[in-house]
Amino acid sequence: MSKVRMGMVGGGEGAFIGAIHRMAAALDQEIELVCGAFSSNTERSRRSGASLGLPDHRVYTSYELMMTAESELPKEDRMQFVSIVTPNHLHFPVAVAALKSGFHVLSDKPATFSLSEVLTMRKIIEKCDLIYGLTHPYIGYPMVQEAQHRVSMGAFGRIRKILVDYNQGWLANDSIERESKQAAWRLDPSKAGISSCMGDIGVHAANLAEFVSGLRITELCADLTSFVPGRELDDDGSVLLRFDGGAKGVLQASQICTGEENALSLRVYGEKGGLEWSQQNPNSLRLKWPDRPDEIVRTAADYLSDSAAAATRTPAGHPEGYLEAFANLYLAFATRVRVREFGEGTDTALFNCPGITEAVRGMAFIELAVTASQSDIKWHRFESH
Fold first, then answer.
1. What's the Cα-to-Cα distance from 328 to each of 25, 93, 342, 351, 361, rounded to whole Å?
2. Where in the numbering of this chain does the Gfo/Idh/MocA-like oxidoreductase N-terminal domain appear (predicted)?
3. Exposure check for the chain: N or C terminus, fewer CB within 10 A?
4. Three-state SS across 317-357?
5. How many CA atoms lie within 13 A of 324 on its CB side?
6. Residue 77 is part of which domain span?
7. d(CA 48, CA 42)
8. What's the predicted TM-score (pTM) here?
9. How far is residue 366's CA from residue 197's CA, in Å, rounded to a whole number?
10. 267 domain residue, yes or no
C-alpha cells in the first residue's frame, strides 16, 4: 500500500510537540513526511528540515509558500495532508490555507485561537469536503477505549457522576517563562488565546469526560486563577459540570500543582458501578462494584472489546503509552485519507480521530469556562454551535 504523504507546519528546533507528532506518524510506517515549514525563522526551518532528511526544495520558509508550491507539484508527489503543530494563534490561518489549497488537515489542539474562528473553519470544511482531524491523543489509549465501550454497553447503568483531573506542576514558578519558550507562548494571550490552563490541558480533560461517558456538557460553573503573580492567563482551574441525562461532574486542571507530572485521571460512576483510569498507569482499568471486589482489567487481554484490541500494539505487560495512543489517532486519520486519495482499504475504523465536532466543542468549552469564571452568575449554558 502507498504511504500517505504528510507536510508539517511548525515543530522545528526546540519544539516539543512537533517531535511527538512525527514519532506518532512514523510508528506504523504508513505515513511519510515529505515537506515542511518548520519555523518562521528561515535558517531554523532549513536546519530542521535537513535534520529530518528532507531535500532543500521541500523545506519552506513559510506555510503560505508551502501550500502554493505543494499544490503545483504532480498529484503523485505532493503532500496529501498537513500536520499543524504551531502555537495556537496560527492554527486557524494555517488550516484555512491548507483546506483552500486542497489538503486535508490534522491539527494539534485547541483547534483555533477562538470559538469564532473554529465556526468559520467548520463552514470551510463543509464546503470543500476535506478531512479534518484534531489530536486529543488520550482517547487512543486501549483502556480508554475499553472504558468507553463498557459505559456504552450499560455495564454501570445510568451515569450519575464524572470526575476528571489533569494536574501538572511545570508552571509552578515564574522563572519558567524565561527559561522555556514552550511555557512563554502558552502564557502569552497573543499566542495562546484567552486561557493557558483550560486551553492547554483542561480541554483534554473535558474531551476525555465526554468521550468515555458518551454524555455532553450542558452547563458549567468555573473558577479560574492565575496563581503566579504577573500572569495574564489562568494557570489553575476548577469547573463544576452538568451533563445531559442528569449526570453531574467536576473537572480540575492545574499547571501549578508542584511535583505533579501529567496526572490525568478519570472516574465515572453509574447506578450499578464505576470505573477509574489514570494516564500514569495506563494499562489498567479499575472497575468498582457495590457487591463484589474491585476488578482490574488489563491491556491486551482477550476479554477486551474490539476497539480496545484495535488500539493495542504490544503483548500483555508492555506499557501502551502516550506515543502509541498518539499514533492510533494518526493511523485512524491516515486510513481515512488513504481511502479518499488512493481508494485503498475501508473507512470503517473501530475508533476515529476526533474531528471538527470535537474541535468546536473544545473551543466552546474554553471560552465558556473563562466567561463563567469572570461572571457573578453561577451556572452558564453550554450552547450547541
1. 9, 26, 20, 9, 22
2. 5-133
3. N
4. CCCCCHHHHHHHHHHHHHHHHHHHHHCCCCCCCCCCCCCHH
5. 19
6. 4-130
7. 10
8. 0.97
9. 9
10. yes
Exposure of 323 in the CB half-sphere (CA atoms within 13 A): 13
Residues 187, 107, single domain; the answer is no
- For 31, the grid coordinates are 505515513
| End residue of a domain, out of 130, 150, 177 | 130
Q: What does the DSSP assignment read for 166-179?
A: EE--TTSSTTHHHH
* Residue 72 grid cell: 503545483
d(CA 275, CA 269): 7
Same domain, yes or no: 65 and 159: no
Which helix or strand (DSSP H or E) is residue 360 part of?
Answer: helix 356-373
Q: How many residues does the chain have?
A: 385
What's the CATH number where 374 sits? 3.30.360.10
- 299 and 150: one domain? yes
Each residue's pLDDT tens digit, 184-220: 999 999 999 999 999 999 999 999 999 999 999 999 9
Centroid of chain to Cα 236: 19
Q: pLDDT (tens digit, 9 = 90+) per residue, 328-360?
A: 999 999 999 999 999 877 665 566 899 999 999
